[in-house]
Amino acid sequence: MLAPFAKRPVQLTLRGITTDDNDFSADLMRTVTLPHLQLFGISDGLELRIKKRGAPPGGGGEVQLLCPIVKQVKTLNFVEPGKIKRIRGIAHAVRVNPQFSNRMIEAARSILNRYIPDIYIYSDVYKGEESGKSPGYALSLLAESTTSALFCSEATSKPGVAPEDIALQATLKMLGVVECPNQPLELYSFSEMFGTSLAHLFRLSP
């Protein structure tokens, strides 16, 4: 949240776990959080690159954040959720059978295809040094509405849980919950603005 307000553009390399159940994954940071920042006028040069993936517990992932500075935050009027027009996703697998990602995609599509035709879930399989130190797999989903609102969900692998069940968890979250982790980012950006902004938030997350 502080990077756009630094004295100089930020080039930051982070190493460790890139996907777990405790925080936004690197995928959702790239596909959801960065577009949120663009709503406030932070766009040119804003990028998150996933160099290596790192599943828990060993980690071994690496991401690079490039963030420009912003002199003034744009006001925001964003209260209409709109209707979902497309769903995108990333099914990634590291140090496991590459077919795990395809199994997650098929399971997710078997449910989502009932509601909307415009669905594309990308299979992302990492091998060798880029796959981190531990085996794992996860599914991240992003839905975009007719008003450019973004809704996301995610589920990560657990011991003894099949890829199809992980996909089911992520899909049910997508169908029933509005994501909350980006609320602090929006509220902090509001505090840096001149003027009045409006946004429709879900129940505040703790």
UniProtKB/TrEMBL annotation:
The lineage of its organism: Eukaryota, Fungi, Dikarya, Basidiomycota, Agaricomycotina. GO terms for molecular function: RNA endonuclease activity. Residues 79-176 form the RNA 3'-terminal phosphate cyclase insert domain. Pfam families: RTC_insert. This is 18S rRNA biogenesis protein. InterPro entries: RNA3'-term_phos_cycl_insert, RNA3'_term_phos_cyc, RNA3'_term_phos_cycl-like_CS, RNA3'P_cycl/enolpyr_Trfase_a/b, RPTC_insert. GO terms for cellular component: nucleolus. It comes from Lentinula edodes. GO terms for biological process: endonucleolytic cleavage of tricistronic rRNA transcript (SSU-rRNA, 5.8S rRNA, LSU-rRNA). PANTHER family: RNA 3' TERMINAL PHOSPHATE CYCLASE, RNA 3'-TERMINAL PHOSPHATE CYCLASE-LIKE PROTEIN. It comes from the Eukaryota.
